[in-house]
Amino acid sequence: MKNDNLKLAIQKDGRLTEDAVIFLRSAGLQFENYKQKLFSSCRNFPLEIVYVRDDDIPDYVATGAVDLGIVGQNLINETKP
């Protein structure tokens, strides 16, 4: 994953996973099956999708390991300083 692509973290397993994938695909993004991967490269946009535990996503965004993350409102509320 060493490149200049945008990096997006989404939940690997859980209630938001399928909705996030549907949302990204409805935006026209084409990427590999996410169930057997740690990350997927988007074929038609400079994007890497990283599949991680939902609790880790805010930390990955905060430290710059990824550029963006999709999480639920409850996780945002729990991680506010």
Automatic annotation (TrEMBL):
Gene Ontology CC: one annotated term: cytoplasm
Pathway the protein acts in: Amino-acid biosynthesis; L-histidine biosynthesis; L-histidine from 5-phospho-alpha-D-ribose 1-diphosphate: step 1/9
Function: Catalyzes the condensation of ATP and 5-phosphoribose 1-diphosphate to form N'-(5'-phosphoribosyl)-ATP (PR-ATP). Has a crucial role in the pathway because the rate of histidine biosynthesis seems to be controlled primarily by regulation of HisG enzymatic activity.
Organism in which the protein naturally occurs: Candidatus Beckwithbacteria bacterium GW2011_GWA2_43_10
ATP phosphoribosyltransferase catalytic domain ranges (all copies): 53-79
This protein's name: ATP phosphoribosyltransferase
EC number: 2.4.2.17
GO molecular-function terms, A-Z: ATP phosphoribosyltransferase activity
GO biological process, one term: L-histidine biosynthetic process
Catalytic activity: 1-(5-phospho-beta-D-ribosyl)-ATP + diphosphate = 5-phospho-alpha-D-ribose 1-diphosphate + ATP
Keyword annotations: Amino-acid biosynthesis, Glycosyltransferase, Histidine biosynthesis, Transferase
SUPFAM superfamilies: Periplasmic binding protein-like II (SSF53850)
Enzyme class of the recorded protein, top EC level: transferase
InterPro entries, A to Z: ATP_PRibTrfase_cat, ATP_PRibTrfase_HisG
